[in-house]
Amino acid sequence: MEWETVIGLEVHAQLATKSKIFSGSSTAFGAEPNTQASALDLAMPGTLPVPNEQAFRYAIMFGLAIDAEIEKASIFDRKNYFYPDLPKAYQTTQLDKPIVGPGHVEIELADGSKKSIRIHHAHLEEDAGKSLHEGDFEQGMSGIDLNRAGTPLVEIVSEPDISNSAEAVAFAKKLHSIVTSLGICDGEMSQGSMRFDVNISVRKPGAELGTRTETKNLNSFRFMEDAIALEVERQIDLIEDGGRIIQETRLYNGDTKQARSMRSKEEANDYRYFPCPDLLPVVLDDDYIESIRQTLPELPDAKHDRFMEQYGLSSYDANILSGDAHMAQFFETAAKTSGETKLTANWIIGEVSARLNTEDLSIKHCPVSAEQLAGMVARITDGTISSKMAKQVFEGMWNGEGDADTIIDAKGLKQVSDSGAIEALVDEVIANSDKQVENYRNTDESKRPKMLGYFVGQIMKASKGQANPKQVNEVLLKKLNELL
Amino acid sequence: MTDSIMNNPRIDDTTMHNKTIADIIAGLDAGEFTSVEITQHYLNRIKQLDSSYNSYITINEESALAQAKAADKRRAEGDAPAFCGVPIAHKDIFCTNGVRTSCGSKMLDNFVPPYNATVVENFANAGAVILGKTNMDEFAMGSSNETSFYGPVKNPWDTNTVPGGSSGGSAAAVAAQLAPGATATDTGGSIRQPAALCGVTGLKPTYGRVSRWGMIAFASSLDQGGPMARTAEDCALMLNVMASFDPKDSTSIDQAVPDYTDNLNQPLKGLKIGVPKEYFEEGLNPGTEQAVRAALAEFEKQGATLVNISLPHSKLAVPAYYVIAPAEASSNLSRFDGVRYGHRCEDPKDLRDMYMRTRAEGFGDEVKRRILVGAYCLSAGYYDAYYRKAQQARRLIKQDFVDAFEQVDVIMGPTSPSPAFEFGSKGDDPVAMYLEDIYTIATNLAGLPGMSVPCGLVDNKPVGLQIIGNYFDESRMLNAAHQFQQTTAWHQQAPAGIALKGKDVGGAK
């Protein structure tokens, strides 16, 4: 049986403003609980909100980046519900007139083709605080931390244009790439700077849309991918077993890789939305919007094309390196410093990314700086070290042992480039490999290059890995050919 | 009574409290008395007389005297701002740093704000002395002051009758001369109606003229702070201090504040007064109508012209208001949940229990009624029928006034349909109570300024004349009111029984 999956995303991105959306409190992450909560953040009586202009600028930047209409008289609404970490018992958000209207985002599919995902709208709203259930509390009590309460969010709502988890991830990564390139969100997923709610339904091709469920608050691409796969499978199994999907909100646990129902539509709050009477419509003029357009930095798509052209990268490599603003900056700095783009790109996509992944770090927190990486690449290029040695150097840099030259000196990793010494090594190996030399001579010329591996391996071994492989190859070929 | 309290020849305890704010400023300027002396005089009166009226929730004896002392020092140093040493009272809806601000509710009985409302700050900067916090209907919801957690305020003219509401404490305090002026707030008539019922002058400014920061919200799109005093001139002096553009209030309007005393003495010749026929229809007490008509005749005598006008959507005002105001209130009052401050029930067994009992215990019946009505009007499936319809009605009401002000300079009529009524007489019928504000509510919906000025007595109960001005035209309203008070004496009438009894009252030290 064929099933079609229909997915729409709601993405919350915390805006990188210094202060909150309606108060002057700091938005910095990680402070002691409630040290960044003013009277307004605590919803003390009589306090009133004043919109943060920077939050508007950021939302407008996002709107312009996705080619959307900017609403010139956007309105804040109140979404009313009781929860201890929501101090006013309503969230100030935008329902009918959001700041960013319909737009679209291009994603690249696995086969290299492009797909456009429509954005329904994006609106500004305030984040809630956090409930703390673990800590030094009296029996049966929970703590409330309001540091996050009032942090500005832009909520990006897609149309249900996404057909599978791979597209969902590509879309989410693209949004991550856009907001970090714009500098409007730090993109730190582990700190909750970007969170995804996924609406999923399945249907037979051509049939009407099925009943959807919403899986909320996914904070990594991997969790999102897994949660979608799990939910699609659950829905198909349920329907095929004669069951019926009920509209509900679900929670996915990334540790157990399981999801559970949080509440059904019947249990859902009636949020009693209405326009917030404390805030007037935010009226913008064309000049203002235009002035923001002038400040837009290079966007990921443009950067991707430039990387291909300027650095001769493949589309695949350019995609990886332009996807994250910090990654792109790291690459460009390293490439310019080393003067070696392809090798630099390979190292970043290969070793650096792998290591960051293993240690769950973002490129922003990479212990090896772009300059350090460039220094190492330069030593590979000038033949000082081999690629193999470079891995040891990289390890040393990662562990904070200094830059490439320091480590090369300290570990005695210079490769032997003395032609006399290399000739001696080659001669020695040839002298001890009568059988292999004989084979080489008797083999058809076209198959000879494949036989070089044995000799090179022996020579490198004899040199304890320090011989310059390029020189070894040259000398070896010359000497073997002399024997023909 | 010939001998003055504490044998201070400068304080005549039979006339001191008769002084207007303008008189007090002049007296302080001239050195006739000090701020400490007059402040002590008012504190004495409050202590001795307020048990009859219950107009104060909190009396700031110590801090008032300290402020008075500081004011006297500033004045001696030649650095006296506008209200330097002038005692006034704040409605207990304005947050006062370090002083309990209850909003008339058990919910906030223990609430001490760590900040001042902008209005409070403005008066502090102007050097005013704050005698205390005045009683009010709970969360400003009421027209009789019967909903206060601290008990009803009694009308000094007849203590069996209500003072009006919700600023009944401020109105009664000014009427009983327990403060020369008091701040108040008006969401649907809460300054003007009690001013009318207590025979004082009260002014609700244009929406956005006075900052709402630190003023506990009832219905944010309607709430507006304003002054109450014995004369229009005093209201002008107070408004000079209260009005400001406040960047902390997004609905505050960035427009220069004029000196509201500048135009007080303009003659009224040529003033066009609109008299809306809808304000003189069924339901208006004949005695009230007579007093208001007489006042209008007085204006004609001064050279003003009466123009019959119509505000055709007036009938929509009360129903629209009783959707919009409760809707906003239901959301504004949701923050009182027992989590961070204010009342919290004992030993909640879980979160839901805490919410339910905290709010059941902390709020009175009228507040609960409005929260329920408001939540209902905003509910899915009812929003269009109620809230959206009410907003449409609001636009029509506003347009009525915009059209009217193309023909006239001010609009006049009764402030409330009848004089003060007895306690409990409307207790069982919320709609009858809501009709108390039938003439005042429309101006809040339109955002216009309005005043109430004493204009007569019916059975020895005061009657208020309402003056409605165009947007930001408070000066013209005050001018009309002041000129009226130059040729009439209704504002000088005082209720019986407000004189100090006995001669052994302590005084300034």
**Class based on secondary structure composition and strand pairing of chain A:** alpha+beta
> What fraction of the residues of chain B are assigned to beta strands by DSSP?
5-15%
The biggest beta sheet of chain B is recorded as: 8 strands, mixed
Task: Summarize model confidence as the mean pLDDT of chain B.
Answer: 95
| Low-confidence residue ranges of chain A | none
Proportion of helical residues of chain B: 25-40%
Q: Pair with the most extensive interface?
A: A-B, 28 and 43 residues
Tally of separate domains of chain B: 1
Largest β sheet strand count, sense and barrel closure of chain A? 8 strands, mixed
Give the averaged pLDDT of chain A, no decimals.
92
- Strand ordering within the main sheet of chain A: 5-6-9-1-10-11-12-13
CATH superfamily of chain B: Amidase signature (AS) domain
For the termini of chain A, the CA-CA separation is 65 Å
The number of helical runs of chain A is 15
User: What spatial form of chain B do the alpha-carbon principal axes imply?
Assistant: globular
Q: Could you give the distance between the termini of chain B?
A: 22 Å
Classify the beta-strand content of chain A into a percent band: 15-25%
Helix/strand order of chain B, N-terminal first: HHEHEHEHEHEEHEHEHHHHEHHEEH
